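Appendix B, example 12.
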Amino acid sequence: MAGVEIRELECFLVLAEELHFGRAGERLFVSQSRVSQLLRALERRVGARLVDRTSRRVGLTPFGEEFAASLRPAYEALAATVDRARAAAREEAVRMRVGFQGLIYAGVAEAVVEFHGRFPGHRVDLTEIPLSDPFGALRAGELEAAVVLLPVEEPDLRVLARLPDQRQMVAVQAGHALAGREAVAAEELAGLSLVPLSGDAPEYWKRAQSPVATPKGRPIPQMPGVSTLQEGLTRVASGLGAMMLCEATAEHNRRDDVAYVPVDGTPPSRLALVGRTDGGTPELKALAEAVEGGYWG
């Protein structure tokens, strides 16, 4: 196989079908003399004549007939493999992978539906990413974008679209003294032990999700961290601390052993569609516009 040119094999198989140098050249979009050159090169490599050519007719030699019969299935299998690879490459080129933390909010899901309507040849794949690692999959190139909690202060990432602010809630055990309250003042968080997120997220991001001090500077005790929301809520339900989360997340994670109480006096929880600063396509921009339009339009 060393040194064999695919073009030579293709030319020989076409010539074996046409038995005419001119028609073979037309199918291959080359001149008749080029067909002759490719055939001679292949015959030199094989070490035998493959075609008999006279002024009146073109025919395969017995060796050429045997060679063509053996070659055609292998060539067709190779062509099919290349076609499948091309199809997969096209699919990859129009596939957009978007991550989310915890849950996909209704506005984001609606934006994906709108995007598919505008770009029927494209597909958005939604993938859950760890709550404790909002940026890892983006940096690894596994995602084109992700819906993550703000803030994002990473130089290699940028905010593509912002989602509406969400009221901050504190999750406490159902039997906790705060469970029946309509709201909790931010200063009262100093009397709780918060369960923060652990993992590879930057410290500033972790502190935004689980503050270490009240607005007036009173320290808020911190429990050992967790890497998932369900792990944190299990701690809360067991009376091993409280957890901060946004109102929409609380609404989607209702359970009898946990109470969610609004917190007054803290900044709202914010989400955004985030991508890499060195990335960006017209399709990703269209998705970002659909996300913002779905909420704000």
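The first strand starts at residue 51 and ends at 53. The CA atoms of residues 80 and 220 lie 63 Å apart.
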